[in-house]
Each structure stands twice: as C-alpha cells, then as structure tokens.
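ARCHIVE CARD
CATEGORY: sequence design from structure
SOURCE FIELD: tokenized fold
FIELD CONTENT:
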C-alpha cells in the first residue's frame, strides 16, 4: 500500500501542469526600451520629467543625510527610492502617451479595457451601429459593466438592448453602464480604468467565471475589427501579474 501511495504521488507530480514561464530579462528590457522610445517620440517632456524625478529624490535624501549625519546610509536608501519614483513617473508618461495614440480611434475604449489591471473578462463590440458606435461588455468583481463609445443618443439604444438580453440570464447581478467621452455624465478615456477600480465588489471570483460562461452564448453578432495593437498602459514590470 505504501508503494502504491508513493507511486500515485509520483504520477501526480509528473502530471502536474507546468506554470507558464514569465518573460526573460532580455524580453523585459526590450519591452521597456520599446515603451521608452515610443513615449519619448510622442512626449518630449518625458525624459526631463524622469531625470528630474531621480535627481530631486536623491537630493532630498542627501540633504537629510547631511543634516542628520547619515551621509552614507541615507543616500544609499535614496537610490532605491529614486528608482521607484522614477519608475512611477515613467509609467505615468507611458500611459499618457498610449492614451494619446488611441484616443479618437474606433475601439479606443476596448483597447484600454483589454489592458486594465485585474481580472476583467472583456468582450468587445457586443453591440454596434452602422455609424460605428460601439458597446463593449466587461465582467468582473463589480458584476457586469457595459461600456459605450460613440454618439450618446445612439449608444443609449445599444445599452438598453444589451440590458434586456442580460436580464434573461444574469439574475440579480449588478449591471452598470458607462459612456466614454468628455461630456456631462461621461467618463474620459484616460479615467476609464480608474472608474472601474472604484466600482464596488459585488460578485465572488467563482461567480465571475460562471457569468463569463453564460454570457458567451449571448454574443450572436459578429464583432467589428477592434485595434488590438501593443498599447503599454502601464510601466512594464519584472514579474507577471
């Protein structure tokens, strides 16, 4: 019996799925280089901001070190903080440049949604009009969020139609709707991810999977071609999420 148990344990270890390998260091550096080149081309102020962030952070720690007599220890700590601050500033400039590139294009909101942090199930173009207004569906911990981009009066009918379809299968799951734009009651493209992160968590993670499976059957219309090119909405990190 002991041998049998050991054998079963060995079999399970052999059959255990391997975790996907993360990007290599060279690949991460290449991604950062691409993001840097793209952002510098579209944002001339990026490099001065990044340099200023590092220099000013270091200056603060050096001055504190001189004032407290810690002229060696605090500057060393300052290097670490300066790198973190510089990375944060760089990430914000990359994000701003990325938004600027896709803003005004067909499917810009879908591109932002597909690059958001967190576990979001994005289905682009669940509804559309011949005038190229689009409606996207997102499933996550808040429930279901419908994101419309286009003429406010036209997308209102898209939202209404999709809510009627959802009512048949989602029960009491909360359904939110957002219209992307700069008008009153709309959410700017640059604030879209922030808006999602502020929504309450109404649904358990397991329920998100169930909702995703149910709603895939509702997608009867063929999707429009949505731009899915590389859009670094945040600073490339050393580890996968």
């Amino acid at each position: 019996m002991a041998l049998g148990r050991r054998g079963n344990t060995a079999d399970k270890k052999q059959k255990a799925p391997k975790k996907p390998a993360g990007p290599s260091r060279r690949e991460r550096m290449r991604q950062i280089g691409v993001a840097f080149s793209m952002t510098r081309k579209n944002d001339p102020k990026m490099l001065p901001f990044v340099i200023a962030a590092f220099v000013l952070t270091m200056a603060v720690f050096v001055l504190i070190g001189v004032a407290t007599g810690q002229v060696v220890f605090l500057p060393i700590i300052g290097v670490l903080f300066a790198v973190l601050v510089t990375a944060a500033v760089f990430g914000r400039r990359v994000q701003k440049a990325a938004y600027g590139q896709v803003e005004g294009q067909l499917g810009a909101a879908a591109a932002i949604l597909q690059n958001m942090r967190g576990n979001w199930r994005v289905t682009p173009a669940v509804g559309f009009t011949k005038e190229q207004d689009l409606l996207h569906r997102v499933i996550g911990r808040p429930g279901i969020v419908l994101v419309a981009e286009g003429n406010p009066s036209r997308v209102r009918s898209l939202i209404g139609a999709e809510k009627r379809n959802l009512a048949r299968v989602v029960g009491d799951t909360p359904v939110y709707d957002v219209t992307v734009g700069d008008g009153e009651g709309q959410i700017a493209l640059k604030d879209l991810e922030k808006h999602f992160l502020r929504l309450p968590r109404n649904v358990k993670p397991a329920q998100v999977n169930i909702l995703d499976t149910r709603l895939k059957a509702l997608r009867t219309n063929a999707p429009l071609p949505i731009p899915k090119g590389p859009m670094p909405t945040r600073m490339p990190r050393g580890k996968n999420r």
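CARD ANNOTATION: The mean pLDDT is 79. The beta strands are 121-128, 134-140, 143-149, 175-180.
SHELF: design records, drawer C
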